[in-house]
Amino acid sequence: MKILTLGAAGFIGSHLTWRLLQEGHTVTAVDLASDKVAEFLGHPNLTFVQQDIRGPEWDLDRLTREADLVIDLIAYANPGLYLRIPLEVFRLNFTENLKIAESCVRHGKRLIQFSTCEVYGRTAASLKNAHLADPEDPIHATFSEDTSEYILGPVSKHRWIYSCAKQLLERVLHAYGLEQGFNYTVVRPFNFIGPKIDFLPQDDKDGIPRVFSFFMEALFNGTPMKLVGGGVNRRCYTYIDDAIECTYRIVLNPGGVCDRQIVNVGSPYNEISIRQMAETMREIYATKFRDAAVPLPAIISVPGEEFYGEGYDDSDRRIPDIAKARRLLGWEPVWSVRDTIEATMRYHVAEHLERLAAGAGS
């Protein structure tokens, strides 16, 4: 296939681009920077377009028209930015992504749209007056694509603008499917981690990094591993190899099974609290990667408003129901949470050591 991939050089996009090339597809990859795909820029089946999609000068319609399939991964997916620049988060995640979807509608092209598990919001157990018999029962935190209700915070908790923008985009795609037969598949990722995730912070221009990257930097520098609200919130971490395998099956779409479907992609077995994540990373680092000259960091608790800023709120727990991915695609994640964390750490430790060596040699 000829595939147009937008956001192709981000964390998920770089892994997906490589898989598509390995499988023999021709890829036109669009992104702001090429760092994470630099190693395969010379591939004969890859055309890289360095472009900000918000610019007026690029020819989206031509690229869409020439493709057999469009994959849209473009997003601001960083909680620090949801609080600092909420309008720009909305514009990119909804307005600019809608332009891509409408180009696909005009030219009759199938779209794979990456969304977020954040559309589900919080669990019923997080509500003050829920009165659940067993608030810890995973059933209250297990989210299904077509039946789960959405619980978000009030407007003053503007951290939810990302979730709302993605949810609204999903609803518009659904409406195009109903009224015009538009063919799309929505992917809802559940906390993918692996090599090339995020960035290790150099300054604050890109916001506060996500949990893994922040903890990794703390381990390198011996600075505190800060747990927002005590780190009681829980997540199900999914290794990028599992995620890309499922995504590639969605690309192939055997028999059209993913037409106009929303698909959770995640590992329900890998639930871990943020505190447990910090403790596990510190223990793995101490036993396998530690630089004895750097002390192991303390694990401390901080208020959300202090760490992120005013308007902070968060999902307490989210477990993916992956029955649809199993049924339609025969997919099952295989990476355990500990192996997922260790493999991701191993990559970033090697990258860190390379940076230190380069700095010492300059």
Question: Any descriptors?
Answer:
362 residues; alpha/beta; Rossmann fold; seven-stranded parallel beta sheet; two-stranded parallel sheet; 15 strands; 40% helix; 16% strand
Number of strands: 15
Quaternary structure classification: single chain
- Average pLDDT: 94
Distance between the termini: 44 Å
**In CATH terms, what is the architecture?**
3-Layer(aba) Sandwich
- Biggest sheet: strand arrangement: 3-2-1-4-5-7-12
How does the major sheet shape up? Answer: 7 strands, parallel
Shape: globular
**Structural domains: how many:** 1
CATH superfamily label? NAD(P)-binding Rossmann-like Domain
Number of helices: 11
How would you sum up this structure in a few lines?
With 362 residues, the protein is an alpha/beta fold.
